[in-house]
């Protein structure tokens, strides 16, 4: 899929941009959109092979060159090094998008404290490390630095079976608001984005606990359902526009905006409704099992691909959970191939 160019000249032309979690999914799409606006983009992520595939994907679709940096955002020194090297390579640093994160899906009865610690270390700690390393360079930007923090609607209200993720994203939201207030006197702006469900293919990268196959079924189906979820490329365009306009806050998808407003007006009612929704989700097993990622739950896409049509051919026996997953997550499965979320082979175009 080609990333559309914009008709007007962007004020991002010639700026240096760094995107963490930039090798796949939303981060990869944001990187491509920024490059289309004329930015010199550096992709940062933990996996070198994934970065290589992501950079090739973005270069093919934009005709631009991308720099890459292997970096675990939980490592403060590594983040500082990447920020410093990006600034040196491009003669400055003007735009930073803190996008790296993890998704853990399970009932709280199947979780331990370490799951919350991991979510906080990666999502919130990684965002803090990125923001704190970037801010001095952004203050020195002649164009006026821009910092973008990717939160979630899950940070605006607690989502059942996504509690560690919600807690960490709530902290990101508070960080974004506080940084915006404290950088107001400088030429730096902070934009905090709270997306709802998006078709990024992230269900393959998520971690599932409890009755993991059932958790995978509902999460992958819901996150790929039209109307409820949003096309990831359209979401990336909206986020880059918000960066251009230096907006303070952006909530994506009508469902996310409605949920945010409802929680602000009647939080107790929303909490009761969340409790009702939780009862519809898979109960925890009597005996705790091993957590599994989305690749394991989907069979790792090892059964075969129909690359021309962007469909996955799964030759395993179809249980009822798999039938539900297939019905609701066809678009998300296609997005996984488009946006470098799968393991084998290069990402496909559409």
TrEMBL record:
Superkingdom as given in the UniProt entry: Bacteria
A GO molecular-function descriptor: oxidoreductase activity
InterPro entries referenced in this protein's UniProt entry, alphabetically: NAD(P)-bd_dom_sf, Sc_DH/Rdtase_CS, SDR_fam
Listed GO CC annotations: membrane
Alphabetical UniProt keywords: Oxidoreductase
Pfam families for the chain: adh_short (PF00106)
UniProt KW Cell cycle keyword: no
Similarity comment text for this entry: Belongs to the short-chain dehydrogenases/reductases (SDR) family.
Record-given protein name: Short-chain dehydrogenase
Source organism (scientific name): Streptomyces mangrovisoli
């Amino acid at each position: 899929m080609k990333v559309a160019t914009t008709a007007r000249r962007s004020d991002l032309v010639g700026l240096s941009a760094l995107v963490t979690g930039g090798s796949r999914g939303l981060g990869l799409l944001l990187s491509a959109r920024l490059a289309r606006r004329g930015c010199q983009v550096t992709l940062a992520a933990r996996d070198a092979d994934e970065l290589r595939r992501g950079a090739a994907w973005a270069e093919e679709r934009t005709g631009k060159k991308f720099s890459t940096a292997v970096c675990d955002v939980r490592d403060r020194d590594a983040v500082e090094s990447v920020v410093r090297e990006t600034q040196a390579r491009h003669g400055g640093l003007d735009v930073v998008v803190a996008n790296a994160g993890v998704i853990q899906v399970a009932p709280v009865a199947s979780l331990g404290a370490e799951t919350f610690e991991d979510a906080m270390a990666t999502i919130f700690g990684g965002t803090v490390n990125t923001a704190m390393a970037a801010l001095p360079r952004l203050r020195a930007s002649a164009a006026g630095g821009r910092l973008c923090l990717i939160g979630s609607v899950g940070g605006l209200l607690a989502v059942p079976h996504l509690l560690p993720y919600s807690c960490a994203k709530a902290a990101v939201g508070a960080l974004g608001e506080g940084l915006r207030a404290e950088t107001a006197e400088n030429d730096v702006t902070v934009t905090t984005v709270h997306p709802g469900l998006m078709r990024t293919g992230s269900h393959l990268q998520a971690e599932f606990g409890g009755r993991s196959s059932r958790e995978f079924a509902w999460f992958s189906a819901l996150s790929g359902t039209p109307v409820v979820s949003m096309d990831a490329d359209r979401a990336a365009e909206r986020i880059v526009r918000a960066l251009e306009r230096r907006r303070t806050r952006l909530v994506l998808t009508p469902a996310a905006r409605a949920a945010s407003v409802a929680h602000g007006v009647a939080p107790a009612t929303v909490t009761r409704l969340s409790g009702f929704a939780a009862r519809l989700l898979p109960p925890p097993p009597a005996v705790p099992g091993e957590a599994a990622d989305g690749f394991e739950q989907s069979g790792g896409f090892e059964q075969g691909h129909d690359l021309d049509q962007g469909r996955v051919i799964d030759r395993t026996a179809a249980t009822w959970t798999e039938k539900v997953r297939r019905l609701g997550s066809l678009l998300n499965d296609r997005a996984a191939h488009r946006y470098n979320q799968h393991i084998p082979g290069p990402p496909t175009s559409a």
